[in-house]
Design goal:
This protein is mostly helical and about 450 residues long. The protein has helices spanning about 1-5, 10, 15-30, 35-55, 70-80, 95-130, 150-175, 195-200, 210-215, 215-245, 270-295, 310-330, 335-345, 350-360, 365-385, 390-400, 410-420, 425-440; strands at about 135-140, 140-150, 175, 205, 250, 335. It folds into three domains: about 1-90, Fumarase C, Chain B, domain 1, CATH 1.10.275; about 95-190 and about 210-335, Fumarase/aspartase (Central domain) (Fumarase C, Chain A, domain 2, Up-down Bundle); about 345-440, Fumarase/aspartase (C-terminal domain) (Ribonucleotide Reductase Protein R1, domain 1, Orthogonal Bundle). It has 18 helices and six strands. The strands form three sheets. The protein has a two-stranded antiparallel sheet with strand order 1-2. Strands 3-4 form a two-stranded parallel ribbon. Strand 3, helix 8 and strand 4 (about 205) form a beta-alpha-beta unit. The longest helix has about 35 residues, at about 95-130. It binds arginine. Arginine binds near residues 7, 67, 93, 97 and 301. Arginine binds near residues 94, 97 and 306.
Length: about 450
């Protein structure tokens, strides 16, 4: 029973939040005349002492004390004696743990924001460097159209921006205090829930005591934010893995972010990127797991809910580490623009430019232009030449309307330079996007 019941090995991580909650509660109890001022003083100084003990390396852990709440209260009793027993007036571990956990998740949202911002800064710096480096853009992992590498990197900037807004939204929605919900029904003591909410930086007390103690939607929502951010990182990690493999050869990972093989001396493996991709599976598992834990629970508290913390802590730790790894990798990876440019020109990647030119300069409907371009690509394939090597006579042999025309610039640079639509890949637009991103990051 002792072993299955205990959560202290996991929830000791809430010690700061637990002390903060207890301080706010003790002060409120005294202010409302529920406990005496000297008792509150004794409790507060005892809590200070416990804080110092945790800072200095921890309070000896007793598994029979079950959780962080009992652990702190028991230690308080050892330190100050009788007044310690008054702290739990008008409070239950049910509202206590819900409060502590919200406080913890709120801090994690802030930490996520800071780490994601760091990743964005790294992406913007490299995008600026490569605003006009040409690379192949892919669809179906087939070379599709040339793009600029800066543009590709800034796609991840946008993803991180939305990830940040999701965490901010999560923090905003969870910011209500369950403290004072007591076990489930509220309390008969004349408490001031608004005062404890304010002291703990919450916007307001939760409106319903049963909801306050029994929902964990904030934790599920946070895990959703973590999972989405991890999925974005995993895609970037996957690209690093592909790009660093020899058939691509788009990047060279620095020694600091790769590992060797114990048997093949030439190896440089993208282990960190692979682990970011792998950790994402565990994070999604944590998210799924907590949803499954919650879905069948009747109101209000059930002990199943104690299993909310381990998956959330694990998922957050993995994301935190993954963000650090990807930020480090993005900052230090060597990009090989020559190889990217060479691949960008393969696979008739500027065929769309030819079709667009037929529409623009010859007034053809796009569908017809698409058809003619298809025939042109076939001709080039048969002859083993690039689109750029076409002559006006070649075009005229496919469609007589095209004789005596001047061919457009079908180079990869010509292609990217022409894509100036809003949000497009042209170096001009990438430069603007970099400037805007820098401004966003500085505010
Ligand atoms: N350790 C518990 C948890 O994390 C605290 C709440 C316990 N409440 C109770 N009635 N047993 O959920």
């Amino acid at each position: 029973m002792r072993e299955i019941n205990a959560s202290i090995p996991v929830d000791k991580r809430l010690w700061r939040q637990d002390l903060a909650g207890s301080r706010a509660h003790a002060r409120m109890l005294a202010d409302c005349g529920i406990i005496s001022a000297p008792d509150a003083e004794a409790i507060l100084s005892g809590l200070d002492q416990i804080e110092a003990e945790y800072e200095a390396g921890g309070v000896p852990e007793h598994i029979e004390l079950e959780d962080i709440h009992m652990q702190v209260e028991t230690r308080l009793k050892e330190l100050i004696g009788e007044p310690a027993g008054r702290l739990h007036t008008a409070r239950s571990r049910n509202d206590q743990v819900a409060t502590d956990f919200r406080l913890w998740v709120r801090d994690a949202c802030t930490a996520a924001d800071t780490a994601l911002k760091g990743l964005q800064a790294a992406l913007v710096a490299r995008a600026e460097e490569h605003a006009d480096s040409v690379m192949p853009g892919f669809t179906h992992l087939q070379v599709a159209q040339p793009v600029t590498f800066g543009h590709h990197l800034l796609a991840y900037y946008e993803m991180a921006k939305r990830d940040r807004s999701r965490f901010a939204d999560c923090a905003r929605r969870l910011n209500q205090s369950p403290l004072g919900s007591a076990a489930l029904a509220g309390t008969s003591f004349p408490i001031d829930r608004a005062a404890t909410a304010k002291a703990l930086g919450f916007d307001a007390p939760t409106a319903n005591s049963m909801d306050g103690v029994s929902d964990r939607d904030f934790a599920v929502e946070f895990l959703g934010c973590v999972a989405q951010a991890a999925i974005h990182l995993s895609r970037l990690a996957e690209e690093m893995i592909l790009w660093s493999s020899q058939p691509f050869g788009f990047v060279k990972l620095p020694d600091a972010w790769s590992t060797g093989s114990s048997i093949m001396p030439e190896k440089r493996n993208p282990d960190a990127a692979e682990l970011v991709r792998g950790h994402t599976g565990r994070i999604i598992g944590a998210f799924t797991g907590l949803m499954i834990t919650m879905k069948g629970l009747p109101l209000t508290y059930s002990k199943d809910m104690q299993d909310d913390k381990a998956p959330l802590f694990e998922a957050w730790d993995l994301l935190d580490l993954s963000l650090a790894a990807m930020t480090g990798m993005v900052s230090t990876v060597t990009f090989l623009p020559q190889r990217m440019r060479a691949v960008a020109g393969t696979g008739f990647s500027t065929a769309t430019d030819l079709a667009d030119w037929l529409v623009r300069d010859h007034g053809l409907p796009f569908r017809e232009a698409h058809h003619i371009t298809g025939a042109v690509v076939k001709l080039c394939e048969e002859r083993g030449i690039a689109l750029e090597a076409l002559t006006p006579e070649d075009l005229a042999s496919i469609d007589s309307r095209l004789k005596d025309c001047t061919l457009p610039d079908l180079s990869v640079d010509g292609s990217v330079n022409s894509r100036t639509s809003a949000g497009g890949t042209a170096p001009l637009r990438v430069g603007e996007a970099v400037a805007l991103a820098k401004q966003e990051l500085s505010t």
